[in-house]
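queue> pop job 88
queue> type: inverse folding (structure -> sequence)
queue> payload:
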């Protein structure tokens, strides 16, 4: 029961994280660097809360297995396994993106001077990394939500 609630909050935070991420991408496309930074810090904070809740749930020993139609079993596992692999990959991707943004900001002094020679290489690297970080993060958020919905309908609690 406790684990079920923890799980619901975990899903809620990761959905919010996906929304903050999408907002952050739109904001930087509009050139609003300050708001972009805040949205991305919010997205990262929410993803961290998610991770804590998820690990708590694992610690509580709560797990569900798929008991839905056989015709969908393979598709479900492909989704689940790709979700797990990319979720693990997402953490280092996001950390490197954040690290470069942070180093760039330190070198620039403020976000209106990102083209200073000392800061530019960090933001170039930031851009290179986020090309991968953003799609991976979105994939993980969306598939996590799908898995949650599928298990809500076709899941059976095996532990907890
Ligand atoms: C993991 C979190 C973050 C993600 C996923 C992310 C994502 C992005 C994306 C998608 C772009 C546009 C890249 C392009 O148009 O090629 C971008 C650019 C930018 N980001 Fe972030 N960002 C994150 C965190 C931050 C933070 C914390 C800051 C502030 C310190 C920041 C500052 C910037 C700046 C200044 C640009 C513009 C760079 C340029 O014009 O060369 N980002 N980011």
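queue> result:
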């Amino acid at each position: 029961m406790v684990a079920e609630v923890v799980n619901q909050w975990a899903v809620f935070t990761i959905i919010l994280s996906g929304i903050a991420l999408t907002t952050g991408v739109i904001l930087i496309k509009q050139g609003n660097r300050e708001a972009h930074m805040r949205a991305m810090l919010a997205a990262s904070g929410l993803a961290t809360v998610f991770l804590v809740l998820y690990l708590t749930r694992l610690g509580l020993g709560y797990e569900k297995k798929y008991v839905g139609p056989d015709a969908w079993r393979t598709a479900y596992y492909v989704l689940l396994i790709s979700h797990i692999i990319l979720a693990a990959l997402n953490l280092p991707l996001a950390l490197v993106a954040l690290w470069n943004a942070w180093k760039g900001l330190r070198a620039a002094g403020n976000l209106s001077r990102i083209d200073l020679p000392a800061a530019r290489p960090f933001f170039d690297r930031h851009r290179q990394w986020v090309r991968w970080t953003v799609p991976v993060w979105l994939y993980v958020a969306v598939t996590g939500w799908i898995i949650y919905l599928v298990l809500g309908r076709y899941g059976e609690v095996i532990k907890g």
